[in-house]
Amino acid sequence: MKVPIHFVKLDLGDVPIETKNMFIHRVDQGQGTKDGSTKGMPKKQAGIQVDVDVCWDGNCDIMLQATFTKSAKVTFGVKHIKLSGRMSILLSPLTTELPVISAIQYGFTNPPDIQMEYSGMVQALTNNLSVVQSALLSTINSTLASMLVLPNRMVMPMDLGSYDYLDVYQPPVGMVRLKAVRGRGFQVLRKMFANDIPDLYCVVSLGASESNGGSFKTTTKMDNCTPCWEDESGDFILYDLDQNIYVECWDEDRFDSDDMLGKASITVRELFMNDGTSELELMMNDRKTGCYITLSGEMFHLCDQVQSLSSLKYEGKNSLRGLYTIVVTRAFDIPLKRDEAATYVQVKYGPGSSYEKKFQTGVIADYPGYDCLNPMYDCAFHVPITTDMLGSDGGLDSSEIDEGRLREAAALFSTDSSLNSSDQPQSLSSSVHGRTTRRRSIVASSITSSITAAKKVAGKNTNDTGPMARSIVLKLIDDTGADGSKAHGTLGEIVISHDDLLRARKYTITETRPIGMGGAKLEFRIILSGLQSREERQMWTSRGMRRSSMGASGRASFATVGEMKRIRVTVIRGSGFPIRKRKGLKKDDVPDVYVHLRLNAWEAEDEPIKSCTWRTRTIKDDTMPQWHESKDFDVDPTCDLIRLDALDENKKGKSDPLGSAEVQVSSLLRKRTMRLNLKTEDVLNGATVTLKCITLDSSNEIDGKVKEGEEEDDELRDESCGPFLSTLSSSLDPIIDSAADDESLVSLSSRQKVMNKLIDVKNHVSFPPVSISLKRRREKKKS
């Protein structure tokens, strides 16, 4: 039961809020167009995200009122609050005019830890009745989670002229499938009359999903100290890699309340840094229990491909197949008086079905600073799509199945008169006839089974298979006005069906539609997203990169399709690798970094035919390693890819991943020197690796090696630049990065060309031109 809580008095005292462990990073996303597409639109720096630990231990004077009913209201005071949690502050999108930031979004990544001391009558109740205290704390936590814990964020517009919630909205990272694989270390409880072997089950939740009723519970393993749940999994929508995964283990009792045996937590980022599997020790009252649960996870990314809606890979009870995203931005021209208007939008998925889901925006009434006749709701809701919601037809309308044609096909395959051939020998004819008859009878029975299955689907509860079962209904509703005027109820509604989204471009509908008969209009966006595993995502990305490299005539813009080139890839340097803090008196772990390169070559059908790998040496204890090591590859620049993985070498175990990046060979050859930003699970982690790539041919290759002049040229440049050019190069980084996707701009103002010109000027002043010294060395080598 959710109980509304309102502030009656608010005095936070004079104790400041402490912040620590701050991490600031860039958030990139496609700018796109108003209809949600990104075709032809350059990527831009969308914003800045600040992740920081917030801790507040302050004396305050707060009066809160909990409204159970209109007549039942309870007022209680809070004299001390201790709050700690990690907050995410998103400054996005960035603009070119003051105040530079269009909006600020803030919220907690995970439910914060809250401790309260009450005053007045409630203090006496909570001291004597622990049930009252736990009920109050649960109510406060659920209220806070519905407002300030992901996926919920508070939005504060900074520039109303450029503010648009469709640009501000941040979609989920994807979906994560979690399994409590097995447990160990549980003990038999010895009692007076008989030993109690535990009946174990686990409850797994992600972030604030438990407070929203979205946790996953395994089956109970009766009388088992080493339970195994390998075939059971729960799917969760992931909004941030720093969200916590919570695991609780319980002992089920038939005649009493279940006993908790311990709990543990781990972030999604930490889980996938351990290859998606981790063994967690359960804790009870901040003490180790000696019991362990092995947790595993699999990541799926959101995409604009909907194959997952019908793929066998995503089958299973309560398995996620996709996601509906419903964004309600604002309404226009509400046909009511200003004092009477107090509107909100109610969102329903599958009204009347067994999986109906209901959401609503906040109520916008007449108040200073708010336009209640053109209200801004700015809310986003997510509806995970499960197999049960789509039915066995994978989202296809059962009316599309033509029973008559299926029966004709079954009859055709059941007849065998056309198989007889007088030209064949009798023995051969009878043998062929027998085998073919059996095959056709199998096909006919399969078609008949399809008809039966289709009828079975059509015979389900009409509420679950009717036209509204997979529809989204947006209702504009008027509540009691600010002046106490009577509510007008529903002003209008809009219905969007699943088939409407399947027919829409990129499965996205962004419109401002009339709603109701009074002239009001509602602006909204609804997105149907599919899921892709990491392997599927890499395959689709590679295909997309190959298609994007082709010109209008179907040939590649860099070179003729199929023309092989020999290239030399040099790993120059890296930067931004983190130092891991260790507990106790242990020294901090400075990474031992090496780079692993893999060339993926592709054939015409977009299937990999070979994969060439190579690794650099390991640079010990260095966050800014320099390698200057090279490897030659034979490539097709039009479609081949290079994948780079940076790893931290461990003497006693597997190397720890520090990030990865992918680049097309044609892009690397065009820019020659490129700094790659490394990502962990598709999120930038701040580390970079610089690559250099050149082509090898008869004009610049002698005895299989690049001419010394080119490499010495680079060395001279490095020695002659000095701190001035290094500072200038770093100051050019933001300019180059912002123009990285504009080929014409990059070709004119890339870092290499700018530095070359500056080096030429300095060389003429300081020492003879590089070209003269190179000419002398070449003449000397020939002689």
Characterization of the model:
The structure is a single chain. The termini are far apart. The protein has 15 helices and 34 strands. It is globular and about 85 Å long. A hairpin with a 5-residue loop joins strand 26 (593-602) and strand 27 (608-615). Helix 1 (121-128) packs across helix 2 and helix 12 runs antiparallel to helix 15. Strands 8, 11, 14, 15, 16, 20, 23 and 24 form an 8-stranded antiparallel β-sheet that branches. The chain is α+β, with helices and mostly antiparallel strands and 783 residues long.
Topology:
Elements lengths: L4 E7 L6 E13 L12 E25 L5 E19 L11 E6 L4 E7 L1 H8 L1 H19 L5 E4 L7 H4 L5 E11 L15 E7 L9 E2 L16 E5 L5 E8 L7 E9 H6 L3 E8 L2 E17 L16 E13 L9 E8 L7 E4 L3 E2 L10 E11 H4 L12 H12 L11 H33 L3 H4 L5 E8 L10 E9 H6 L4 E7 L6 E13 H15 L16 E11 L17 E10 L5 E8 L10 E10 L5 E8 L7 E9 H7 L1 E8 L2 E14 L4 E2 L2 E2 L1 H31 L4 H7 L1 H16 L3 H13 L1
Antiparallel strand pairs: 1-3, 2-3, 3-4, 4-5, 4-6, 5-7, 8-11, 8-15, 9-10, 9-12, 12-13, 14-15, 15-24, 16-20, 16-24, 17-18, 17-19, 17-21, 21-22, 23-24, 25-28, 25-32, 26-27, 26-29, 29-30, 31-32, 33-34
Helix pairs in contact: 1-2, 6-7, 12-14, 12-15
